[in-house]
Design brief:
It comes from Candidatus Segetimicrobium genomatis. One of its GO terms (molecular function) is D-cysteine desulfhydrase activity. One of its GO terms (biological process) is alpha-amino acid metabolic process. There is one protein chain. The chain is an alpha/beta fold. It folds into 2 domains: 3-47 and 156-327, Rossmann fold; 65-146, Rossmann fold (3-Layer(aba) Sandwich). It is built from 10 helices and 10 strands. Strands 1-2-10-7-8-9 form a 6-stranded mixed sheet, sandwiched between helices. Helix 4 links the parallel strand 4 (92-98) and strand 5 (118-122). The radius of gyration is 19 Å and the shape is globular. The termini are far apart.
């Protein structure tokens, strides 16, 4: 495996903690729950994107770029962290966000502006329109003599997913040191990069661990297709003699609710339960829905009481403040 040969710039505080959650486990009458705290990666209030950006911006520096362009929703964690990492490394950040512009900047959008990113909000949910805006912007920058580096939504391509291949090896080392056999990992899966890296890691190490993605928006088929595509590119990137099988991928889209970015009642309940049992804060866009998914699977007796399930906390807490009205009750 050639992971160590990829260009990389240190951005995250690693390893992130692996914490047991006994009060949550007792409350749910479920398996032994552990939380992998990638909300504590340190960059710009933390989150999983720091692992991806280490490799993506390593590539940007290697190519001599001076501008970083990325895309996301208005409350994009990835855009916030990309803006911060770009400033830290001397790149100019531009974030192209899709959705309705809010009356007042809150949460991640406010942080984008504090980091001094050029923010462009496009009122569309059409990925092709957003991609066209990014291509036009990059073309204009090149005409002006700049060298832009375009990062996809969520940092989710093979280069970004390499960060989560390494993250799996980190978790495996922590679990082995603690004498814990991990049976499953549950996390929010939307753009597919995190699941691609974790899934590849479990196959590389022949661990038998199930990687369970809980969609925060797209249909299962969309997420699965994204993951398969990224995994196929990742194994080429790191020179693995292995290919993914579609039947191995586990993605649930039962916990999305109305649509991406709109918290469900189950999501809000999950956030309150984790806060009040473990003092850990989730977010209403990704991790809240992922935890609602884990709770739903426990209620369906998907896991036995003696199993160890890792909930991968991918961060995103700044979005809580953009959804303050949803938390006024309860």
């Amino acid at each position: 495996m050639q992971l160590g040969n990829l260009p990389r710039i240190k951005l995250a505080h690693l390893p992130t903690p692996l914490e047991e959650a006994p009060r949550l486990s007792d409350y749910l009458h479920g398996p032994h729950i552990w939380i992998k705290r990638d909300d504590l990666t340190g960059l710009a209030l933390g989150g999983n994107k720091a692992r991806k950006l280490e490799f993506l911006l390593g590539q940007a520096r290697q190519q001599g770029c001076d501008v970083v362009i990325t895309v996301g929703a208005v409350q994009s964690n990835h855009a916030r962290m990309t803006a911060a990492a770009a400033r830290r490394l001397g790149f100019e950040p531009i974030v192209v966000l899709n959705g309705e512009p809010p009356d007042q900047a809150q949460g991640n959008l406010l942080l984008d502006r504090i980091f001094g990113a050029e923010v462009r909000i496009i009122q569309t949910d059409d990925d092709y329109i957003v991609a066209g805006v990014v291509e036009d912007l990059a073309r204009q920058l090149r005409r002006d003599g700049r060298k832009p580096f375009v990062i996809p939504r969520g940092g989710s391509n093979a280069t970004g997913a390499a960060g989560y291949l390494g993250a799996w090896l980190e978790l495996l080392s922590q679990a082995n040191a603690s004498g814990v056999r991990v049976d499953a990992v549950v996390h929010a899966s939307t753009s597919g990069g995190t699941q691609s890296g974790l899934y590849t890691g479990t196959k590389l190490t022949d661990s038998g661990v199930q990687v369970i993605g809980i969609s925060a928006g797209p249909r299962r088929e969309v997420v699965t297709t994204r993951v398969l595509g990224i995994v196929g590119e990742l194994v080429e990137l790191v020179d693995l003699r292995w290919r993914p099988h579609p039947d191995d991928l586990i993605v649930y889209d039962d916990y999305v609710g109305e649509r991406y970015g709109v918290p469900t009642p189950e999501c809000l309940d999950a956030i309150r339960i984790v806060a009040r049992t473990e003092g850990v804060l989730l977010d209403p866009v990704y991790t809240g829905k992922a935890m609602a998914g884990l709770m739903g699977l426990i209620a369906q007796e998907r896991f036995t009481p003696d199993q160890n399930v890792v909930f991968w906390h991918t961060g995103g807490q700044p979005a809580v403040f953009a959804h303050a009205a949803a938390f006024q009750e309860g």
